[in-house]
Design brief:
The complex is a heterodimer of chains A (360) and B (119).
Chain A lengths: L3 E6 L11 E7 L2 E8 L16 H9 L6 H16 L5 H29 L3 H22 L8 E2 L2 E2 L5 H27 L1 H7 L7 H6 L4 H5 L31 H25 L13 E11 L2 E12 L2 E7 L1 H13 L7 H7 L4 H4 L2
Antiparallel strand pairs in A: 1-2, 2-3, 4-5, 6-7, 7-8
Chain B lengths: L10 E3 L5 H10 L3 E10 L2 E10 L2 E9 L4 E3 L9 H11 L2 E3 L23
Parallel strand pairs in B: 1-4, 5-6
Antiparallel strand pairs in B: 2-3, 3-4
The chains are: A alpha+beta (360), B alpha/beta (119).
């Protein structure tokens, strides 16, 4: 038996985008065990329910993450709306769906760039992020922010996006589609890229289910799980939404799921813009929160929970957010077992970890 | 064509002593563990365990008195270790027979824990 060595990996490491720590137990160059540690930057944002009322908490929760911030704001607002029995206007549901898919688009393009960076393909990394800028420009033009948007509120949205601008968004996305295809073809067809991903970090469907994986990690292993199939938020039921599923369960499959979702998001936005009704984008909301509501959104990284509980006060008793990375850490630990040490960064990247979300 | 799901809000109250039995039943029925969270309600702690099957949620709610210990569900759902360690560190809930107990070192926060909204 080869001698075992423990290699501390993170929380600060050149190939780690976020502060997570892994004790990698290796025999020669093979990882036999990985012990995760998180909690280095836990911010206690949920505890702010004691000092911020339910309207303000939407903006606090949005600040959990700089990538999927819109979804967090939406989830928090919708959970409070659910607890209060507030029905928002249909146009607001359409706009929330459009903004959420724009967030998924830029999140996946960011991830593709990080993946390229992890296997040393610097030019591919730069091109992915260059194209992503177009999406950020759309978000800036429509919401005023590139990272934090503060457009979502309890009762709908703070402002409308006019139909002319929505059409321009569709045209702009159609315009970059070919460019995105050129980039994603490299991920799918380039031999050197495939060498790093095909057959690496395989998570079987059984393991994905047993380890309760979510998002593209689960869907890359053939699990049909996508919260956009639930009917209590957004307008996905009007857009013929079907989840993107791959079955190989390796890094390549997880990458293909996200690439499929990039193009799917562009299509969903076009369909939503074609169907969006006229009307207001918010309703007035008054009173206290009494009752509870649990909502799940499909964030770019997977299923996210938003639980609001009130006790007849402006201050919530609890605002709970469970982010997707929390749920994918066990799957990461499993896939690391038996992998080559050199593949560890790619493997970590393919669960698309967001420790900022995890350390809410 | 994937089936769309009308989500039902359900929260089923369960005795602390019955938690493991209920969890084992859900596991046998093919439910996926989805999350657990603690809420301080008066002088007690309410814990909600959420399980998913075909996009429909089932939530079990237990109410734990101060100092009362709860059996870990990590024997049936190993990924629950993340949530149990979190609830231990931030809310002071004690779990027995955890498959992966960080002994209070899961979160490295500057503020003293457990956090109690009344403090």
């Amino acid at each position: 038996m080869a001698k075992r060595t423990v290699i501390p990996f993170g929380p600060q490491h050149p190939v780690l985008p976020e502060p997570v720590h892994l004790d990698l137990v290796v025999e020669d160059e093979t990882v036999v065990e990985a012990i995760p540690s998180i909690g280095f930057i836990h911010r206690g944002l949920e505890k702010l329910v004691e000092k911020r009322d339910y309207s303000q908490m939407v903006y606090v929760i949005e600040r959990i993450c700089g990538i999927c911030s819109f979804g967090h704001g939406w989830g928090a607002a919708a959970a409070v709306e659910g607890a209060m029995g507030v029905k928002i206007p249909e146009r607001a549901e359409y706009l929330r769906t459009i903004l959420h898919e724009l967030s998924r688009l830029h999140s996946h393009l960011l991830w593709l760039g990080l993946l390229a960076d992890a296997f040393g393909f610097e030019s591919l990394f730069n091109h992915c992020w260059r194209v992503r800028e177009t999406v950020l420009d759309i978000l800036e033009k429509t919401t005023g922010g590139r990272v934090i948007f503060s457009i979502c509120k309890v009762g709908g949205l703070n402002k409308d996006i006019d139909n002319e601008t929505l059409k321009e968004i569709v045209e702009t996305l159609e315009g970059i589609k070919e460019e995105i295809k050129e980039l994603t073809d490299v991920f799918i067809e380039d031999d050197s890229v495939k060498n790093r991903m095909v057959g690496v970090g395989v998570l079987s469907k059984e393991d994905a289910e047993e380890l309760c994986a979510v998002g593209p990690v689960a869907r890359g292993s053939g699990v049909v799980q996508d919260m956009r199939l639930t009917n209590n938020h957004g307008v996905y039921g009007e857009l013929d939404f079907e989840p993107v599923i791959e079955t190989a369960g390796d890094c390549y499959a997880r990458c293909k799921v996200r690439i499929g979702e990039v193009f799917q998001s562009i299509e969903l936005i076009a369909k939503a813009v074609a169907k969006i009704p006229e009307g207001p984008v918010s309703v007035p909301v008054k009173g206290n929160v009494e009752g509870e509501y649990m909502l799940r959104l499909e964030q770019p990284r997977g299923e996210a929970f938003y639980y609001a509980k009130g006790a007849n006060s402006k201050f919530l008793q609890r605002m709970r957010v469970r982010t997707p990375t929390n749920m994918n850490i066990p799957a990461l630990v499993k896939t690391l077992q038996g992998c080559d040490l050199a593949d560890v960064p790619i493997l970590i990247l393919t669960i698309d970890p967001c420790i900022s979300c995890t350390e809410r | 064509m994937s089936e769309r799901v009308d989500v039902v809000q359900n929260f089923e109250a369960v005795e602390v002593s019955q938690l493991l039995t209920e969890v084992k039943d859900l596991k046998a029925e093919g439910y996926r563990f989805a999350q657990a969270c603690a809420t301080v309600v008066d002088d007690k702690i309410e814990i909600i365990y959420s399980f998913d099957k075909a996009h429909q949620l089932k939530n079990l709610r237990i109410t734990v008195a101060q100092g009362e210990e709860v059996e870990s569900i990590t024997g049936d759902y190993w990924p629950a270790f993340i949530y149990e360690n979190e609830m231990h560190d931030l809310f002071g809930v004690q779990f027995n027979h955890s498959a992966l107990d960080y002994q209070g070192n899961f979160f490295k926060v500057a503020e003293p824990t457990p956090w109690n909204p009344k403090k």
